[in-house]
């Protein structure tokens, strides 16, 4: 199991996107030779998540200009994610982790039916991981509720800070 310390290798994943194509982190890293911003979000039903994804879509050119590619992952059903992606015109990969395999591998908080408060049933919470072209962790933030997550502007600042201060 990954320790999720800065500089350690994050786990690879293989998940279906909304079109049914299997997407792998290692294949993305090899294809783009770039950093990856991996966003876990609650689901298509979450208006805060959808707005965050819209903001990321608006910042997509900025991130890709810095050689950073976005991937979004949710435990929501593929059909729900497909409708949300089409409705909002998201052009980054949106992946479905219905069986919680990647959520567990990345140690993302899961709001289960046994949680101490009601919150739209069982679902994964928001989490953010920035990895370099070697798949090594540069930044992480995991939420246990819908609040406190970084905005697209915050993520841009984080990227600028890390790129400026990255040890060679």
From TrEMBL:
Leader sequence residues: none
Domain Thioredoxin: 4-164
Lineage: Bacteria, Bacillati, Bacillota, Bacilli, Bacillales
Keywords attached to this entry: Disulfide bond
Pfam families: AhpC-TSA
Xref: InterPro entries: AhpC/TSA, Thioredoxin-like_sf, Thioredoxin_domain, Thioredoxin_ResA/DsbE_sf
A GO molecular function held by the record: oxidoreductase activity
Protein name as it appears in the record: Redoxin domain-containing protein
SUPFAM superfamilies tied to this protein: Thioredoxin-like (SSF52833)
Coiled-coil stretches: none
């Amino acid at each position: 199991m990954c320790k999720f310390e800065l500089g350690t290798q994050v786990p690879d994943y293989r998940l279906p996107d909304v079109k049914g194509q299997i997407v792998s982190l290692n294949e993305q890293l090899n294809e783009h030779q770039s950093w990856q911003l991996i966003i876990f979000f609650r689901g298509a039903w979450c208006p805060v998540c959808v707005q965050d994804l819209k903001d990321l879509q608006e910042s997509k050119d900025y991130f890709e200009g810095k050689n950073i590619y976005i991937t979004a992952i949710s435990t929501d059903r593929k059909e729900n994610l497909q409708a949300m992606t089409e409705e909002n015109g998201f052009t980054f990969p949106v992946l479905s982790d219905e069986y919680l395999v990647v959520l567990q591998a990345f140690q993302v908080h899961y709001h289960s039916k046994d949680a101490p408060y009601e919150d739209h049933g069982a679902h994964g919470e928001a989490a953010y991981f920035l990895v370099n072209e070697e798949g090594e962790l540069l930044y992480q933030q995991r939420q246990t509720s819908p609040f406190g997550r970084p905005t697209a502007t915050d993520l841009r600042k984080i990227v600028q800070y890390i790129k400026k201060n990255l040890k060679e």
